[in-house]
User: Fold this.
Amino acid sequence: MWPQADLAQLAPLLKLAPRAELEIGSGNGNFLAAHSAAHPHSLVIGTELKLERCRKCARKLAAAGAGNGVVIHGRAEQVIGWLPPETLDAVHIYFPDPWPKRRHRKRRLLRGGTVAQLAHLLRPGGCLHLVTDFFDYYLQAVVLLLLRPDLEVDRDPALLPAAANLSRYGPRLAELGKSMLCVTARRRAAVHGNAEN
Ligand SMILES: C[S@@+](CC[C@H](N)C(=O)[O-])C[C@H]1O[C@@H](n2cnc3c(N)ncnc32)[C@H](O)[C@@H]1O
Assistant:
């Protein structure tokens, strides 16, 4: 597990890595461990709010022999504030907590501010992948992503990343016959608008 206090040391590694990816809300680490093991040349950083789940992530990374994967215990909104701009090739968000009640929506991870931060963290050509089974969350995310001129949004269901099946929730939902919604947002190489926010 990577201590939050040492986040500053992650920045130079991110710049040196041939490829760098971030997973937000890694849960028990199913995706984090499998994806890190399958992409040994990628630095894969997971963030998870709950300590016990981080420990499980760390154990799964060790069991998979994935030395290129790390998990940071903390709130993703804080962690992304520490990462240098234009260093990520991919951001993975699989089945974020939906906060379905209207009064709780402000707790959702994907809000205007986080979408802007994540867009700035992506290298040109880098992609944010979101998969959720909550239509309302999906709609909110798509609108926020479409509002950014520096992102090219694709909602083709065929783009459902195979990665989502590596997570804990993906196969469970598939078994229950629930539909999954996915959106991919690619950071454009050059922006002809103002995306300062
Ligand atoms: C529904 S689970 C999905 C876990 C995993 N992505 C999967 O598909 O199996 C959402 C996870 O996100 C974590 N989480 C929620 N808010 C977070 C935040 N702000 N920062 C980091 N992790 C968060 C939760 O603790 C939980 O483990």
